């Protein structure tokens, strides 16, 4: 008898906001809005308004990205850290969310 022990992968979804906390200061929260995605990349709008193209990695069944680069204390945002849109509107600004989700 074989059993499938592989859990479903948690992926980034276009039109949703995700957040991560700074490793140095847990009160510092970074927010990103996924604008679009392909099989290998996602386009995100960061809270400073910059648009970046990132390649997600898989870690423990969750897609993760490091928007500022890969170094020892880099910010890592996982697809399991979805942010409610009302909180995201405060962090990103309602105008940025409306423009990105059109």
Summarize the structure.
With 102 residues, the protein is an alpha+beta fold.
Relative helix content: 10-25%
The secondary-structure element order is: EEEEEEEEHH
Counted beta strands: 8
Structural class from helices and strands? alpha+beta
Beta content comes to 25-35%
| Poorly predicted residue ranges | 1-5
Overall mean pLDDT stands at 85
Which of globular, elongated, flat, extended, rod-shaped describes the shape? Answer: globular
| Largest β-sheet summary | 5 strands, antiparallel
Q: Looking across the biggest beta sheet, what order are the strands in?
A: 4-3-2-1-8
Terminal residue distance: 49 Å
Please give the domain count.
Answer: 1
Radius of gyration: 14 Å
Count helical runs. 2
Describe the structure.
This protein starts with 16 loop residues before the first strand and ends with a helix. Helix 1 (85-92) packs across helix 2. Helices cover 15% and strands 33% of the residues. The relative contact order is 0.24. The protein has one domain (17-100). The chain has helices spanning 85-92, 94-100, and strands at 17-21, 29-37, 42-46, 51-54, 57-59, 62-65, 77-78, 82-83. By secondary structure, the protein is α+β, with helices and mostly antiparallel strands. It is built from two helices and eight strands; from the N terminus they run ββββββββαα. The strands form two sheets. Strands 4-3-2-1-8 form a five-stranded antiparallel beta sheet. A three-stranded antiparallel beta sheet has the order 5-6-7, with no helix packed on it.
């Amino acid at each position: 008898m074989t059993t499938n022990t592989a859990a479903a992968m948690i992926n980034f979804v276009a039109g949703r906001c995700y957040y991560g906390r700074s490793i140095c200061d847990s009160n510092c929260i970074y927010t990103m809005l996924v604008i679009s995605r392909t099989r290998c990349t996602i386009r995100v709008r960061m809270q400073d308004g910059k648009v970046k193209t990132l390649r997600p990695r898989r870690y423990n069944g969750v897609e993760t990205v490091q928007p500022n680069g890969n170094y020892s204390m880099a910010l890592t945002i996982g697809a399991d850290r979805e942010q409610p849109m009302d909180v995201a509107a405060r962090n990103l600004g309602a105008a940025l969310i409306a423009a990105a989700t059109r």
